[in-house]
Amino acid sequence: MVINVSSPNTPGLRALQDKGPLTDIVQAVKEHRNSQPIYVKIAPDLTYGAIDDVISVAKDNKLAGMGQNKGVS
Length: 73
Known about the structure:
Layout lengths: L1 E3 L14 H14 L6 E4 L5 H13 L4 E4 L5
Parallel strand pairs: 1-2, 2-3
């Protein structure tokens, strides 16, 4: 299961990559999944601090992994 919070074309969606909203989303998904691994997809242009926050959420919630949405040129 992939949580994609990185769409640059969707107004306000990227704010969901912030630590608080992302934690809320991850925890809600965890409540309703079976035993599927959860991955999170983030924007490629986050600051190091924002990436640290995403890593923290991933570790705290034992996510399977994370990746960047490279988009299409």
